[in-house]
Structure formats: C-alpha cells, structure tokens
Specification:
Length: 285
C-alpha cells in the first residue's frame, strides 16, 4: 500500500493519515484511512458527483473512536474514470466490499450520503457478513421523494460545464444562507467526464426504480439510522418517515440543514452518527 498526501481537508482538519490506490476491475480506486487501525471500522461513501473530500469536516470528529475509511467510487474524485466499466449500483457496492477485504476489514458500520446511501444499501445486500449497521444521510427512500430541480440546476447542457453551471448544480445541495460551496467539491464535478456523470445518475435512478430502499432494508435486518436535513432541496425531508417501516429504524431530522448536513454542520451530524455507532460498532479483537 502506498502512502500519499491524501488531499487537503475542506474547512480545516488534518491530512489523511494514509491513502492508496487499489487496482479493482483493472481500474484504480482511491482509498484513504484515518484513525487507529485497531478501532471499529467506519466506511464513508460519498454521493454522486462528489468524492472522499465531502467527508473531510467530519473525519476529525470520528477518529477518536473509529478507523475511518473512505473511498472514491469509480468515476469520481481520484479514482479512475473509464468509459468501458459498469457504474451500476451493485458494481459500485461490490468494489467497495472488495476494497474493505483488501484492507483486512471484516466488519464495518457503513455510512452513505445521498446516492452513497444507495451504494451502502447494495453493499449490505451483497455482504451481510461485512456490514454490521447502516447510516443513510439525506438518501431518498424512493423516486417519489425526489424534488425535480429548476432547469438551471438540472444538469449541464455542455461538457465540460462552466463554473456557473457547476455552482447552479451544487447549490441545491445546501440550504444555509451564505454558505460558500467549497472549491474542492466543485473541482470534483469538473474532474468527471460526461459519461461518468450521466452514468452514475442513471444508475441511482435504475436501482430505486427496481425497489424502494425501505423494502430492501426491511429484508436485511440490519440496524439503521437515517439522518436528514429538514431543508433538503433534492429529496423531500418528510420522506424520511418512510424508513420507519424498517423494524427498529432510527430517524433523526436536523432542523435548519439541507441536503449536505455533513458539510453544513459536521458536529451535529457526527454527534448523531457517533451515538448510533457506539451501540452498533464491532470492535477489533
């Protein structure tokens, strides 16, 4: 495993303690780790058109009690962006599972933001031995919960998109007045190809069309925490109640926050997550 700089943290924080690029499906998958290696594992999965950097503000709040692992899904961030590989949700989940295997992780709480929560669900379906519990952050339970964007924010009409188009797309990910979207996150969109951008969006829609997440999660029988910013502009926050159909599911709404509470208020988001993981994490012997 090679050690590299791991990239700078958005809104402050330490450098990633260790990062590497794993060869999976003949493509490079970027992985970074922070925190003690003998602590319970916590896998963080970013959403569409994002990367490991979206979790940067939360990582220092989690490493006191967890081995924090993040990956750039294929097509995103510092991972490869091939045109001849599958971006289907099950394939993205499978790669995440193999990455944990390569790192020697046997059990993990898996956290997904937005469409990353869809990948997290698919990973739990494939690898119930690996996933001990799930946390979904502003992940819509079904397509019925999706809020259709204004035309200006629906997607770029050209590629690469202009800076103004990128900011319009990203703007619906936040609700706080005056919140400045980190430049690193805009770079994540700039770094995608048209194929990877559209393929990942289609993949999430296809997976949700097949079956809703509450239906899938009910069958899994895994502890579930759902965190939702009440002012989400992409998914109706009232839809978070749909997850209550999952036996034992915990649903926590965060007033005043939008689609990206991990960036808008990392401390409040981390507090909810840590209360959950303190009960459901598996410690390394």
């Amino acid at each position: 495993m090679t050690v590299s700089d791991g990239g700078s943290y958005v809104n402050g924080g330490a450098e990633a303690a260790e990062s590497s690029t794993l060869s999976l499906d003949e493509s490079g998958i970027y992985v970074c780790q922070d925190g003690p290696r003998d602590a319970p594992a916590l896998l963080l999965i970013h959403g569409s058109a994002s990367s490991t950097r979206s979790w940067n503000p939360m990582v220092p709040l989690l490493t006191g009690s967890h081995r924090v692992i993040r990956i750039d899904l294929l097509g995103h961030g510092r991972s490869a962006k091939p045109a001849d590989r599958s971006y289907a949700i099950p394939d993205q989940a499978r790669r995440a599972g193999v990455a944990l295997d390569r790192l020697g992780v046997e059990h993990s709480v898996v956290v997904g933001h937005s469409s990353g929560g869809v990948v997290a669900t698919a990973l739990a379906e494939q690898r119930p031995d690996l996933v001990t519990a799930l946390t979904l952050v502003n992940t819509g339970p079904s397509l019925d919960a999706f809020i259709a964007p204004e035309p200006a924010a629906s997607g770029p009409s050209q590629w690469p998109p202009t800076d103004e188009q990128i900011r319009q797309i990203a703007s619906t990910g936040f609700s706080l007045a005056g919140y400045r979207i980190p430049e690193e996150l805009l770079d994540d969109v700039r770094g995608m190809t048209h194929h990877t951008f559209t393929a990942t969006m289609r993949a999430t829609r296809s997976y949700l069309e097949q079956r809703t997440l509450p239906d899938r999660l009910t069958d899994l029988g895994r502890p579930l925490l759902v965190i939702f910013g009440e002012d989400d502009r992409r998914w109706r926050s009232s839809s978070a109640s749909d997850y209550r159909a999952v036996p034992g599911a915990e649903v926590e709404l965060l007033p005043g926050l939008g689609h990206s509470p991990l960036l808008e208020d990392p401390r409040r988001t981390a507090a909810a997550l840590l209360a959950f993981t303190s009960i459901h994490s598996v410690r390394v012997d």
